[in-house]
Specification:
The complex is a heterodimer of chains A (788) and B (325).
Chain A (H helix, E strand, L loop, with lengths): L2 H7 L10 H9 L3 E2 L1 E3 L2 E3 L6 E5 L6 E6 L3 H21 L1 H17 L1 H12 L3 H24 L1 H4 L3 E3 L2 E5 L5 H14 L3 E5 L6 H12 L7 E3 L4 H8 L6 E5 L2 H11 L5 E5 L5 E4 L5 H11 L13 E5 H16 L19 H13 L5 E4 L14 E4 L6 H4 L6 E7 L2 H8 L7 E5 L3 H10 L4 E4 L18 E2 L4 H5 L3 E3 L28 E2 L1 E3 L2 E3 L6 E5 L5 E6 L3 H13 L8 H17 L1 H12 L3 H22 L5 E3 L5 E9 L2 E5 L7 H12 L3 E5 L6 H4 L1 H6 L8 E3 L4 H10 L5 E4 L6 H8 L5 E4 L12 H7 L1 E9 L4
Helix pairs in contact in A: 4-6, 5-6, 6-8, 11-27, 12-13, 19-26, 20-22, 21-22, 22-23, 23-28, 26-27
Chain B lengths: L20 H6 L4 H14 L4 H13 L1 E4 L7 H12 L4 H7 L10 E4 L4 H7 L7 E4 L10 H13 L4 E5 L2 H5 L3 H15 L3 E5 L2 H4 L2 H13 L4 E3 L11 H18 L4 E3 L7 H14 L12 E3 L2 H14 L12
Parallel strand pairs in B: 1-2, 1-8, 2-3, 3-4, 4-5, 5-6, 6-7
The chains are: A alpha/beta (788), B alpha/beta (325).
Chain lengths: 788, 325
Amino acid sequence: MNITEIFKTMDYGPAPESASAAQAWLESHNRRFGLFINGEFTSPNSEQYFASRAPATDEHLSDIAQANQVDVDAAVAAARQAQPAWEGLGGPKRARYLYALARLVQKHSRLFSVLESIDNGKPIRESRDIDIPLVARHFYYHAGAAQLMSEQVPGYKAVGVAGQVIPWNFPLLMLAWKIAPAIAMGNTVVLKPAEYTSLTALLFAEICIEAGLPAGVVNLVTGDGQTGSMIVTHPDIDKVAFTGSSRVGRIIREATAGSGKSLTLELGGKSPYIVFDDADIDSAVEGLVNAIWFNQGQVCCAGSRLLVQESISEQFYAKVKARMDKLRVGDPLDKAIDMGAIVDPKQLQTITELVASAEHEGEVYRASCPLPESGCYYPPTLITELSPSATLMQEEIFGPVLVSTTFRTPAEAVALANNTRYGLASSVWTENINLALDIAPKINCGVVWVNGANFFDAAAGFGGRRESGFGREGGREGLYAYLKPTHEFPPLVETSAFGANESGVASATLIDRTAKNYIGGKQKRPDGNYSRPVYSAAGGLIGHVGEGNRKDIRDAVEAAHKAKSWANTSGHLRAQILYYWAENLSARAAEFTERLVKVTGCDSNVAQHEVELSLTTLFSAAAWADKYDGAVHNVPIRGVALAMNEPVGVLGIACSSAQPLLGFISVVAPAIAMGNTCVVVPSQPFPLLATDLYQVLETSDLPGGVINIVTGDQTTLMKTVGEHDDVDAVWYFGDAPLSKQIEAAAAHTIKRTWCNHQRAYDWAQVKQSDVLRRSVEVKNIWVPYGEG
Amino acid sequence: MEGHHETLGHVPRNDGIPLNLDWVSAVQVNTSAVERRGATIPKRRSVKKQWQAAWLLKAITLMDLTTLSGDDTEERVKRLCRKAMKPLRPDLVEALDVGSLNITTGAICVYHDMVPTAVRALEGTNIPVAAVSTGFPAGLSPLRLRIEEIKESVAAGAQEIDIVISRRHVFNQDWVALYDEMCAFREACGDAHVKAILATGELSTLRNVARASLICMMAGADFIKTSTGKEKVNATLPVSLTMVRQIRAYQEQTGYMVGYKPAGGISTAKSSLSYLALMKEELGDRWLQPDLFRFGASSLLTDIERQLEHHVTGRYSARHRHAMG
């Protein structure tokens, strides 16, 4: 086309970024890559390679090694061998390596960007302006985290060897999110990039060499899901971090159950994008471009579920459609396109089939923008008129497809937003700060963007709730994914309940006291109407407790949910109630001491100490209730990222057998201090210390349902708790070897778990801050501001 | 909505509508979001090679070549007019093979006293003369005189009148006064087209910019324009985005197509391309024609000439190789 013609049409022409440097780099490796183990590239033991192709052109880019078990073993062994020295270097020395990596990423940024776009299909604008700068930022931030480790996270140390499996949507960025915090904290890693997109990871391996990173600190094994499975199940891996689908996340949760491996999962989403009628409509429309048409919609936190206030929906949809028609879809290396290629024909097929399935449920609008004739492309798509029950309102599509429905009121917007199994991110558009800051905490998710979408930064934690996974990446909260307390506990020795002696009868001088369950603030007879006797160390019958069953657990969980307004009470109020609890317990300290001696047979000074520690713990929890603050993260926008500590929700807790009072209070008090409600199965051999608390709680103004107590067989009861889909987290400290079962059961709804793995937790040694940290989910609320 | 380029229709003048205060008060602008969008426009769009050359030529035709200095003389204005008629070196026109396009600037923009000179100098061309008016740049002379100034410029042959609004009406949210003032200016213009200068750099917030834009359109502005060029901050992409979105909203509601003129601070070829991309993206191709889009610029032309020479020769050019205005 000549200039005169273009002058008349005013079309954009092609604006290609050159691929020659990236192609030359591939050629310099003869388009074949081995594995990066122990600081060098090695041929795979399998001698097998698979092809990596460019989704835009179907061009064969390279052959990638398929790692087998021998290779994974070698990588893990290298990481294991390197770990002590790497950790031993200390934070400040590690910081220098991370800093070098950040600098090298910047130095080679264009090569990384082009390679990423070729391999993944994402627009060069995104890899150049978003992915790669965020990668460098992540290494810079975590260089600082390493530098300050001893000051920022005292009392914690590296977990050990981390096995990390990452997805194909942000190949190098996800690598950075995994590797930077891990090695900053002194771990070594074995990472598997996604099968479709290994190339930038391999280039990263080269800069590890360039940075002089000690051999074995970073090991990269390429391969398919089999390789990933070998990593996550490897017995010598201490920590597994996975980003990917909820389906695979569940498999990993099950596979690692009971192994004692630390686990973080960053999974799928169906994040709501809420537009209120007082929003800047044009900006909200434009925001969708970043929310759902960013990276072809292949973003776990994509704002894929549009919720629009009814009064503006017609106007809004019209504007969205007009905006969609303006999007340019095409060659990822063209600097002037908005959407590139879908990562793989398989993914394209999935998207196509999902949308086809919705044709009868809603109105499907496909952008009128032209698509390239060949290659893996899908048009920007909007599906309106969907009801919340429509499959596509619930299922993640992972493509450039936006689904939508309307709402009438803020309350309905929240209800719709939370009507999902996921809980990753959310956008809220309104010019009313009261509304924005009211809605943000009410959405069950890990990240909220006010008047924006898809803001990311290394200084702010990212991660989900519910089936979107657990753990945070970025910010101080993200460091804990790669840390464990320095204090470790010895293996657990089972504490048995005492049996009856020959007489086995209660003293006739006592009026019979049979403890029931404590549900919704009331003492409730167990559903089964069975009781279990409790004998003293001397074998005398001290009393009975209820033999709880699954229906009691069901009722207790219901009661815990009904009491959830506890989360909205002020820290000040919760503190007062905890102080009151301490006060009332203190008044009966002698009685509890005596009881401890009687039921456990311990010395009275030991019992006295436990009661005293319990009181201290209550005071500490009360003190923390209004002090366990969130943070305002220093993110590079004009605005704030508010890292708010929110309660996890409903906790199911099985207490330690030993320390029957302290073990109860050490977990329950911090949990409720943070606004959680809980269902507690107390010490199985010594339940009376918990049931004795009923009256203390009742006189302490604790609202009914905040603490629910069901006595009985922990194994039976915790099975029900673990399988209850409306329990958000399960903590298990009992004697029976249930950690595996609980973690496996948690896979179904991706519950948070904290299990003792047969370690004898000594609650006198556990730092309350560790319990508090597990009692909250950090939600990052991004609030950009500015008026003029 | 978009007229096809081959069949560019005549744009009916915006006759304005009755003042609609409900609409004005419902206008929302989220500054951060607008700034983010503004920042991505130059990143999301890029034109290269012959496309870039064509777009730069287009930018020339959209330019109100401007001189608004206290030391302007008739000779200076005549020189500028000759530059407007022949903005490109003939060898470049030939090398680009665009002789048939008959490239001239969109208009000449001067103070009232220079209007007769400019009209005479441009006789026989299609290049209109625009006069800044109404007590430009502050707009604080008596209303009666401001209206009289418009009439005199029109009588002197100005086909376009760039008026300045009373910023105080915006700060006072006195939309009725602003509307009435604009209506009076529009009436005084008669058949001459009127561009309403908002002096956005002084309006402080984008919300003010959006609301003032809307009022001026309701009162019959043919164009809305950012700046006099005399404010500390002149045209920016976020301000432009705010204004063109109001133009879009006004068209959606009334059917009238109102023109846009960013002015001041656009001095590089590259930035002119960003503005063209902004218009194409937000309003469509129809707004890439001189009846709906103008740059107010004085030094932009030289940079465009240099870039076009680079396109032709592959060598980076120097300013002194191109004729000054």
